[in-house]
Amino acid sequence: MPELLEVEYFRRLAERCAGRTILHIDVPDAHALADGRSPRSLRQAVVGRRIELARRHGKLLVLETDGPALGLRFGMTGGLVVDGELAIDRLLYSPGTFGTAWVRFGIRFDEGELLFHDPRRFGRVSLDPDESRMGPDAMAVTAAELGRALATRGPAPGPALKARLLDQSAIAGIGNLLGDEILWRASLAPSRPARSLAPAELRRLHRHLVATLADLLERGGSHTGDLMAERHLGGRCPKDGSPLERSTVGGRTTWWCPRHQH
């Protein structure tokens, strides 16, 4: 289930493609192309181009060329293989293995190849992806930017805190697992209004957001949080041993501790 951290691993692996020239584009599954684009038009746009940079914005991986850019969104089970090497060997809600039958898109270079595989087919590949509606990247968001993202307008009470964190137009990159882990560490209830945070709470949230992303990136991904093993019926808070509560916030299953998250 790729969130910001998993796509960061993909970006690091894709960096080795910088300087390579695209010789051919393989599209075994045209469903993987966004905006109704045909394999032929995509080939015409990028074959012969050189990869200059692999960068990430939230959950979006962008391969910059000396012409148009390629954008890869990984959905629930998408993954990346470069020169036969997987960036991640296991994702939640996926078979946990690589199979050639799941390759939806591929790039053959003058040296090596890049493969996009996706068992559940929710991922998409686009040309010059539109990033204008995406919020600041969660790994680089400042406290001021976070405050602006949470300070929603409109009738009270406004969106819930977790729902706003998962809103990619507000902050790009946070998914369900990271959202729960960050709020649990910050001792903030996921269902409280996003705009209700006091200045000290906002600073605390930003501090834990930054620290959680750094910690879990080093550990191995979004599924390595302290809360992860207790996300089940009967699970208990790793901080105080209280029974965790399961709720639905912003349409997403949410695990949290009513005792210390307020």
Polypeptide structure, described:
This protein is of the alpha+beta class and 262 residues long. It folds into 2 domains: 4-127, N-terminal domain of MutM-like DNA repair proteins, CATH 3.20.190; 143-256, Helicase, Ruva Protein, domain 3. The chain is built from 6 helices and 11 strands. The protein has helices spanning 4-14, 39-46, 143-150, 161-166, 176-186, 199-219; strands spanning 22-26, 51-57, 60-65, 70-73, 79-82, 85-86, 103-109, 113-117, 124-127, 245-249, 252-256. The strands form 3 sheets. A 5-stranded antiparallel beta sheet has the order 1-7-8-5-6, with helices on one face. A 4-stranded antiparallel beta sheet has the order 2-3-4-9. Strands 10-11 form a two-stranded antiparallel ribbon. α5 crosses α6. It is elongated, with a radius of gyration of 20 Å.
Give the secondary structure arrangement, pairings included.
Layout: H1 4-14, E1 22-26, H2 39-46, E2 51-57, E3 60-65, E4 70-73, E5 79-82, E6 85-86, E7 103-109, E8 113-117, E9 124-127, H3 143-150, H4 161-166, H5 176-186, H6 199-219, E10 245-249, E11 252-256
Helix pairs in contact: 5-6
Q: Helix and strand string, N-terminal first?
A: HEHEEEEEEEEHHHHEE
Counting helices, strands and paired strands, the structural category is alpha+beta
- Percent range of helical residues: 10-25%
Using the coordinates shown, work out and report the CATH topology of the largest domain: N-terminal domain of MutM-like DNA repair proteins
- Overall spatial form: elongated
Percentage of residues in DSSP E strands: 15-25%
The CATH C-level name of the largest domain is: Alpha Beta
Q: Please name the fourth-level CATH homologous superfamily of the largest domain.
A: MutM-like, N-terminal
How many E-type strands? 11
Q: Mean pLDDT, as a whole number?
A: 94
Low-pLDDT runs: none
Largest sheet: 5 strands, antiparallel
Please state the CA-atom Rg, rounded to the nearest Å. 20 Å
CATH architecture of the largest domain: Alpha-Beta Barrel
